[in-house]
Design goal:
The protein has 705 residues and is an alpha/beta fold.
């Protein structure tokens, strides 16, 4: 107490009051600039501003940022030595349908183990593992899921295919409490109640059905089922109501939250909310004169120094964006009733988190602020108390199960009939900087009405242009996607889009790519032949994106919903602005389905020939082919059954693109094919080495540079 009183008298302490957010911004910009060089410009400008404002604050920023950068660099550069055996304590187990993922603790980075089996392990176990080290791949499709980056952010340095695992010891681990609670819920509760209780009480939403999860995302209420800061706030308010007559209620709530941190596995969003609660209590008790903005800034600073990789954690970013938003708009809502407060907080959260939400869901529901009012009441007043009551007295779970079922149906109905969804493309770092820059300017000049409306107008103009410019592709862009199994090519020019094949549909990568790029209309979806690695995602694409026409061979008996199906039995010519297409179907049915592939010729800024999977017999269809060709999508993933000498003599072209897939047992592309193409002086691009290949502005670009 004496030291705190002395601390409060220091000049430096008084300087920092109401200025901790300046340090938080500096650390954020510093860490962000490591991966985005353009941010360095903003960091330098901001640093100069701080130095002029207060040298003491500047040096505080510099020293704390240096700590966070050092921790980041030490962690990212730490390498786990590859050896025959690996030893460590199990810290998490994620069971899948036919395998499980086990993570064991190492020094600075942990080890992830894929185990094909159902052997029972616990966080009490110390295990010894023998297995093959797996290659960690980055994203192979533009802006797609980056597995390598994900593991890096999770501090996982090695991934192993576990061939032999044995338990060598057991010791108590505090995470065992969470494990026991999950097992308890799984054993005693029926299906619907089990998933909701695990979501609301433990923070485990893996049991949610796809339909329910989609409804939560569309309604914009996912945060209520992810144990976020909102969840903790509801929980604290609920406990305060119950314990309002107890003198030491803050001690009980603090103890409960400490245990709850363990139960929720120290989720970043929960950690943020709990630490803020503790700081509020300390600030009040010792009269530290910290503002709400100071408290949220101090917690932000502390967590980023402790773990700089939190900046890449979606839950962490959303949680702090919400916290800063609530603190900043609180003065504007002092005289508002609770309903209006919830609405304005939800609306502000929608605006401030828009880029993050769009990059996850590709769309935003404009009615989510209104929906939040309803669901915060339902969850806070009914579902959450019932979930905890059921958790403590499991017979109540039988009644709660019906309540959960009704809630899921209600959420689904709201998502279908009470939504105005606006689809938007991916927010790049440049778009995000402009967006948040304009919001900051609006807040700075908020009290000046003319300037406020000026920057608000600029923000609306930016969003309008962002949508329009992403809907129109002013130049030809041909994207040869690097899929795990199969191939797909997306061609855009002006207002027109053509897709040739879809791959097998693993993780719906083609659909996700189209949505990220702002492609919501496809003029022609050309499916070369009836093999899963070429049409496996067609149903999902037509269900989620407006496809005007799907073109297939007459020997392909598939029909897809939501689209006009065209089955070709003769040559088809299509004229489009800036593009002409000729599609050649097989004139007879071949015994080999590969030879039934449609052959597509596209004449535009560059002339392209797409061969599907035709083999040497099917290549005879190109006899007397008289069209100029610049780029050929090589047939059948570069298999030795295709790209014969006769074909190479018949068709003259400069560039060869091979979409090989990544299933190693197939051996695509074949060495003989590569040698033949080299002998004929072709410039080769191949997805197994180059990842996704893009042709635009007269040049080829490799994703793997």
């Amino acid at each position: 107490m004496f030291y705190l009183k002395k601390l409060k008298t220091l000049l430096q302490y008084k300087i920092l009051l109401n200025n901790y957010f300046l340090i938080a911004i500096f650390i954020f910009l510093t860490l962000f600039s490591i991966k985005h060089i353009i941010v360095i410009i903003f960091l330098i400008i901001y640093g100069i501003y701080l130095y002029k404002k207060s040298k003491f604050i500047f040096w505080c920023c510099f020293i704390l940022s240096l700590f966070s950068v050092l921790i980041y660099l030490i962690t990212i550069n730490y390498k786990i030595e590859e050896k025959k055996h690996y030893y460590g304590q199990v810290i998490s187990i994620d069971k899948k349908e036919d395998y499980q993922i086990i993570i064991i603790k190492n020094k600075i980075k942990n080890i992830m183990i894929y185990e094909n089996g159902n052997a029972e392990y616990s966080v009490l176990d110390y295990i010894e593992v023998e297995g093959e080290v797996k290659e960690i791949e980055p994203n192979r499709i533009p802006r797609g899921f980056n597995y390598k980056k994900y593991l890096q952010n999770e501090k996982i340095g090695l991934v192993i295919s576990g061939e032999s695992i044995r338990i060598v010891d057991q010791k108590f681990n505090i995470s065992y409490i969470r494990e026991l609670l999950i097992k308890y819920v799984e054993r005693y509760f029926p299906e619907n109640a089990k998933s909701i209780i695990k979501g609301l009480v433990i923070g485990e939403n893996k049991d949610f059905s796809d339909e329910f999860m989609d409804s939560l995302k569309i309604n914009g209420i996912m945060h209520l089922f992810a144990i976020s800061g909102t969840h903790i706030a509801i929980l604290v308010l609920f406990l305060e109501k119950i314990l309002k007559r107890f003198k030491n209620k803050s001690i009980f709530i603090s103890s409960f939250l400490a245990i709850y941190l363990v139960v929720t596995n120290f989720s970043p969003s929960v950690l943020r909310a709990v630490l803020m609660y503790y700081f509020i209590l300390i600030n009040k008790k010792f009269k530290l004169n910290l503002s709400s903005l100071d408290i949220v800034s101090i917690v932000f600073i502390f967590l980023l120094i402790y773990n700089p990789f939190y900046l890449e954690n979606l839950g962490f970013c959303l949680s702090f964006l919400m916290a800063f938003t609530i603190v900043l708009i609180a003065p504007l809502m002092e005289n508002k009733n609770d309903t209006l407060k919830v609405f304005f907080i939800s609306l502000s959260a929608l605006i401030i988190t828009l880029p993050l939400v769009i990059n996850i869901n590709h769309q935003v529901n404009l009615l989510s602020p209104l929906i939040n009012i309803l669901f915060i009441v339902l969850v806070g007043e009914i579902m959450l108390p019932f979930a905890f009551a059921s958790f403590m007295f499991f017979p109540i779970g039988l009644i709660f199960n019906y309540l959960c079922k009704g809630f899921m149906v209600f959420s689904s109905l709201i998502s279908k009939y009470f939504c105005i969804n606006i689809k938007m493309p991916y927010f790049s770092i440049y778009h995000s900087l402009i967006y948040y820059g304009l919001i900051i300017l609006i807040l700075i000049v908020y009290k000046t009405i003319k300037k406020r409306y000026l920057f608000l107008g600029l923000l609306l103009i930016f969003l309008t242009c962002f949508l329009l410019f992403n809907s129109v592709k002013p130049f030809l862009k041909v994207v040869f996607l690097d899929l795990y199994y199969g191939e797909s090519t997306v061609i855009t020019y002006g207002f027109n889009t053509i897709i040739i094949d879809t791959g097998d549909g693993k993780n719906n990568e083609v659909t996700e790519y189209l949505l990220r790029e702002g492609i919501y209309k496809v003029d022609y979806l050309i499916l070369t032949h009836n093999h899963n690695d070429h049409n496996g995602e067609a149903e999902h694409i037509t269900a989620n994106i407006k496809v005007k026409n799907t073109v297939m061979s007459i020997y392909d008996n598939n029909n897809y919903l939501y689209t006009n199906n065209i089955h070709l039995n003769k040559e088809m010519k299509i004229s489009m602005p800036k593009m002409d297409l000729i599609i050649f179907p097989p004139l007879c049915q071949y015994a080999n389905e590969n030879d039934n592939s449609l052959i597509t010729y596209i004449k535009t800024d560059v002339n392209m020939l797409f061969l599907g999977d035709i083999e040497k017999e099917g290549e005879k269809r190109l006899n007397n082919f008289l069209y100029d060709v610049d780029i050929v999508k090589i047939a059948h993933h570069g298999s030795k059954t295709s790209t014969g000498i006769n074909f190479l003599n018949m068709v003259n072209f400069k560039y060869a693109v091979i979409q090989s897939g990544r299933i190693k047992s197939f051996g695509f592309p074949n060495v003989e094919v590569i040698n033949k193409l080299n002998n004929y002086k072709k410039i080769i691009y191949r997805t197994d080495k180059d990842y996704t290949i893009t042709y635009k502005l007269g040049k080829f670009y490799r994703l793997n540079n």
